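Researcher: Next entry in the queue.
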Amino acid sequence: MGEGTAWPVIGMAISAVGLVLALLARDRQMWRHLQSALDQLHERINRTRDEYVRRSDLDNHIQRLDKSVDDMRGDIRDMRREFVERLDKVIALHSRNGGGP
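Model: Structure for this entry, 101 residues:
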């Protein structure tokens, strides 16, 4: 190779190295952008998981509440029945004793 043909080859080699470095820099920039988007997505998924309950847990909790309400309803019914019986006794006693004010 002559001295005149060496410069274009060196120039092409430098251009090829520059092109490869530019491609690597663009690739790293795209990777950082993609990683940032993935981090945001994972943060959103984690926040959603932490803020919401599973359907089975919610169903179990609602069933416990329903059972508690039914128990309370039965207790109130029993208390009302006892109250009516006592009130009937008081009214009967009051009417036997003259029924005055």
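Model: Helices lie at 3-51, 55-96.
Researcher: Noted, moving on.
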